[in-house]
Automatic annotation (TrEMBL):
Segments forming domain Amidohydrolase-related: 5-293
Keywords from the named record: Hydrolase, Metal-binding
Name this protein carries in UniProt: Amidohydrolase-related domain-containing protein
Organism: Candidatus Nomurabacteria bacterium RIFCSPHIGHO2_01_FULL_40_20
Cofactor: Zn(2+)
Length: 342
């Protein structure tokens, strides 16, 4: 056994559900899950039950997180297109790292479908902090064009289709300021998983084909995709497996399995150890301008195999779509600013 040290990892896309849905997760359980997964800095999404679209709601989240979070946490501000006058109040807040726009149906009530509203948002977010988009297929084409028109920095969340990898590759080739993230579930499952796992394999964007998945791995290797984001989206089992006739909630937890899945990719010869650090630390830090965390690191043995259990996770939802899989490099210690926190 040989332990290695890595920097505390950064996850730029998590949903900790507080306030509003703390039966799924809260700042304490979610940040414990982050540490267990090797993350010392996480960025929380605004699609709470009451969306985080005013400075006041943002301040409420920040103060709740200060009381309860055991790792460092920042926030993405939300928009429904009607709150652009709030942007001035939040864009220089050091706890705000980006503006999130939802262009497709998913968990939460912030969908913007109207092109005029979308333009208004791109025009109003006058900041070097990225605009993050949930934009699938045609919506990605639209948001890339708007980011170019208004000279905004764009981060495309959870890309999942081959055509999207190609769009990003083309935009980068033309020097557009765009970055892209991919989620472990899209790298490891295809839509075939849904017949067996039912609601537990349902998320937005949905799982794709084998061809999509191959394109995602290729995009990771050639730098088209910049980072891994867990899109940790906890829902309790009853919400994922509702009584007959119910629609399962979209989203899967991921904070505690992301690093192990990336070391599995190293073990399988898909990526290198250096890639793991680039995708989960260096690039997220650079793209979202995450502050330094002095004397902060994690320890693990990248060659040590472990099996993802059925339960006993830190996340309050206490399940994983990866249960039963053999992963590598379970986090054994986390030191945050000189203090051992795991
Ligand atoms: C996310 C959630 O549950 O908040 N769900 C999901 O399926 N990914 C929302 C999102 O990231 O789109
Ligand atoms: Zn999304
Ligand atoms: Zn998400």
């Amino acid at each position: 056994m040989s332990l290695i040290k890595l920097p505390g990892l950064i996850d730029v896309h998590v949903h900790l559900r507080e306030p509003g849905a703390t039966h799924k997760e809260d700042f304490y359980t979610g940040s414990r899950a982050a540490l267990a997964g090797g993350f010392t800095y996480i960025l929380d999404m605004p699609n709470n039950l009451i969306p985080t679209i005013t400075a006041e709601l943002l301040e409420e989240k920040i103060s709740l997180s200060k009381e309860k979070s055991v790792c460092d946490i920042g926030f993405h501000f939300g928009t429904n297109g009607e709150n652009t006058e709030e942007f001035e109040k939040v864009k220089n807040n050091p706890k705000v790292f980006g503006l999130k726009i939802y262009c497709n149906h998913t968990t939460g009530e912030m969908l913007i479908e109207n092109l005029e509203l979308l333009e208004k948002v791109f025009s109003a977010w006058d900041s070097p902090k990225p605009i993050l988009v949930h934009a699938e297929g045609e919506q990605l084409v639209t948001t890339l064009a708007l980011a170019l028109k208004y000279e905004r920095v764009l981060h495309v969340c959870h890309i999942s289709q081959k055509s999207e990898v190609e769009l990003i590759r083309k935009a980068k080739a033309s020097s557009q300021k765009v970055s892209a993230g991919v989620c472990p579930h899209h790298l490891y499952f295809t839509k075939d998983a849904v017949s067996k796992m039912k609601g537990y394999a349902m998320m937005k964007p949905p799982l794709g084909t084998q061809e999509d998945q191959d394109a995602l791995w290729a995009g990771l290797s050639d730098g088209t995709i910049d980072l891994i984001e867990s899109d940790h989206a906890p829902h309790v089992k009853l919400e994922k497996n509702p009584p007959a006739g119910g629609q399962p909630a979209f989203g899967v937890p991921g904070l505690e399995t992301t690093l192990g899945l990336m070391f599995k990719a190293v073990h399988d010869g898909r990526i290198s150890k250096e890639d793991v650090v680039r995708l989960l630390y260096t690039n997220p830090k650079k793209i979202f301008n995450i502050p330094d965390q002095p004397d902060t690191y994690i320890e693990l043995d990248p060659d040590l195999a472990y099996v993802v259990p059925q339960k006993g996770f830190e996340t309050k939802c206490d399940w994983s779509p990866f249960s039963g899989m053999t992963l590598y490099g379970k986090v054994q210690a986390v030191v945050l600013r000189g203090k051992k926190v795991l």
